[in-house]
Amino acid sequence: MSEAMPRVLIVEDEVIVALDLSEVIEERGYEVVGPCSRLKQAEHAAREAQIDAAFLDVNLGYGATTEGVARILRERNIPFAFITADAPDGVEFRRTGEPLIRKPASHAALINCLEKWCA
Amino acid sequence: MRVSPLMEQVPAPADLLADPHQEIEALKRRIAELEAETAEQSLRLRTKRLKLQEFEAMVETAPVGILVADASGQITFGNHLVEEMLRHPIHFSEKVADYHAWTAFDQHGHPIDPEKYPLARVLEGEDYSEMDVHYQRGDGTKFWMRIIGRPVKDTEGHRIGAAVALIDIDAERKLQDTQRILIRELNHRVKNAFSVVKSIVNQSLRYSTVEDGVRRTLDNRLDAYAAAHGRLMDTKWQSGDFRDVVADIVDRVAPGRVHYDGQAFQVCSGQALAFSMAFYELATNAVKYGSLSVPGGRVDLKWEIDDTEDTPSFSVRWQELGGPLVVRSERKGFGSFITNRAIALETGGSVEMDYAETGVIWTCSMPIEELPEDE
Predict the structure, then answer these.
(1) Which conformational region is residue A81 in: left (phi greater than 0), alpha (psi within -120 to 50 degrees), or beta?
(2) Which CATH number fits domain B62-168: 3.40.47.10, 3.40.190.10, 3.30.70.20, 3.30.450.20?
(3) pLDDT tens by residue, A80-111
(4) C-alpha angle A41/A47/A48, rounded to 5°?
(5) Per-residue pLDDT for B107 more than 60?
(6) pLDDT of residue B169
(7) Which fold has domain B237-367?
(8) Start and end of every Response regulatory domain (chain A) (predicted)?
(9) Contacts of B202 in chain A (CB under 8 A)
(10) A19 touches chain B (CB under 8 A)
């Protein structure tokens, strides 16, 4: 990883949670992209923004999921983790090896992922 | 045309000559008999025709579409409701392979194979066949329809065809869909609520003077409660298996160090939440001060159902082993409130805490009540 702060995309539809996650991640010396709470916004950021990693809340409400966002990130080879309050086997589009953090997300789990990716 | 056998019994002309008078009388009797028989036959015919009319009226007033096929698969009959529902004339398909003229689709939008239709399946030998399809009507609109097929048999019980009932279930389907979306949205909101609460606590305590340990304890307690909720949501809020309740908590707080075992047992949602919180408190306490605070220490967690008494009961025993010498705690904090009073209140049972020198033993015994019926 270069000298510049690694940039982390956060997709989360609960605004308070999104801001809290952002702060935790920023405190550890990462730069947050977003947070995005809507699908369109998130897909755009995943496609266009300069990012090194991402955390994706699986369900964005009213049936919208981050399946498409994950697909874009895979194409760009950007590491990411899903965050969900659902049962771990409930995320059909998750591929083996892709980390899943169960909600409420513990800060330690987030940081662990980041350290592994950005080591 | 078959000749009636009665005609054959008419005497030959040679016999007539023997005693014409007598023979004429005999003929008259035969004619009278014949007339009576014909009257009887026409009455029978009339009754049959009436029966058929009754049947047709029945079929036409039935609130479902009805189609009948003969043994070869040829559709031979359909009531007016079929056309009303499907908004196209009945296809009198000649054989099963021609059923593709009927435009039904499965839930993924794939057309139904002709031989998969209940009519075809019953003709193939099934006694009952049911299928929900998304049907494209003659005017292009679509609706959900249930097809139910039964065989048609002759008086000897041989299968001579099949009949299907077509039922409009569109309203029912739409209601189910709405309900599914509502429940999913509600679950999503409830699950997220825990994350939101945690974030509020985090943000509120962030720049305060509250020590970090308090924040972490609060955080972890909320996690334990949220995990139990998550589990219940996965089971539609009815009840939870006791083993899952245990595993969710102890495998997280002290992985591999709590040895648990017991019979399958369903606890209702309130009890599942209460036990989750209690095990969280017992486990964190054991990690901080009890047997799990030293290497080699462990916890045995056993539960069993006792149904030998009039009122069956369920008992749980948490026993710490291999830890430091136990010092009785007189502190009445949130933890002891949860492991004692809250559990007793929620389960209607009794709780005991034994500060044995070799390790804390916590037991709970509760009467088993019938769980609410699954809907």
Answers:
(1) beta
(2) 3.30.450.20
(3) 999 987 766 778 888 888 888 888 787 888 88
(4) 85
(5) yes
(6) 94
(7) Heat Shock Protein 90 (3.30.565)
(8) 7-118
(9) 20, 24
(10) yes
